[in-house]
Amino acid sequence: MMNSDTYTIYIGGAKVVIATTAPATEGATLTVEDNVSVLRAKLLKKVETDKCVTVITTNPRETFESLAREFVVVEAAGGVVVRDDGTILMIRLRGRWDLPKGHIEAGESDSTAALREVEEETGIVAELCDTEPMAVTWHAYDTYGRWELKRTRWWRMCYKDGEPVAQAEEGITQVAWLATTEDAAWRNETYETIKMVVDTLEG
């Protein structure tokens, strides 16, 4: 998620925070001098050994934008579908619990893409609950030698119709309505980005 003061990027199992000061929690730091960008290679090397890295800079936005230029930026959208009982719709993909999401197709708005991906991956028809995304996440990954930076806009949705059906051709093995409580078992089998998005819903 991002705002004007802090940017967070997830790289594999590591979290990179670009901010003006280091957090009180433990973790490695990387200081950026004025007008000097963070080299992608240097940062990727850092996250090999440190799972939490704070990039300290006087201008987080400038540093983030400079770093982003070293990646291919990919646009995606996803949905957090909520039922009246408070449970949310999750998918089982690559052995972990995830939220339905996917790339935005040409000519699509991110909200339209999010609704489409939810229906395609889960069989559930939903509708938007809000007029703005509930969260934005950034995730960097290596796709066959090409480093991409995916921006995913997440939309809170209300259940409308349908029964859960996993899109097997996409590798989804299960679709389920799960609780959002802090002790929910799925939290031990998911990604930090997903926990953050769900916590935003609770907040």
Word description of this protein:
This protein is α/β, with parallel strands linked by helices and 203 residues long. The protein has 2 domains: 7-68, no CATH class; 77-202, Nucleoside Triphosphate Pyrophosphohydrolase. It contains 4 helices and 12 strands. The chain has helices spanning 40-46, 60-68, 110-122, 192-202, and strands at 7-11, 14-19, 28-31, 52-56, 72-82, 88-93, 96-98, 101-103, 125-128, 135-143, 146-161, 172-178. Strands 1, 2, 3, 4, 5, 8, 9, 10 and 11 form a 9-stranded mixed beta sheet that branches. Strands 7-6-12 form a 3-stranded antiparallel beta sheet, with no helix packed on it. Strand 6 (88-93) and strand 7 form a beta hairpin. The chain is globular, with a radius of gyration of 18 Å. The model has no long low-confidence stretch (mean pLDDT 91).
Short account of what is shown:
With 203 residues, the protein is of the alpha/beta class.
Detail the topology: elements first, then pairings:
Elements: E1 7-11, E2 14-19, E3 28-31, H1 40-46, E4 52-56, H2 60-68, E5 72-82, E6 88-93, E7 96-98, E8 101-103, H3 110-122, E9 125-128, E10 135-143, E11 146-161, E12 172-178, H4 192-202
Parallel strand pairs: 1-10, 2-4, 3-4, 5-11
Antiparallel strand pairs: 1-2, 5-8, 6-7, 6-12, 9-11, 10-11
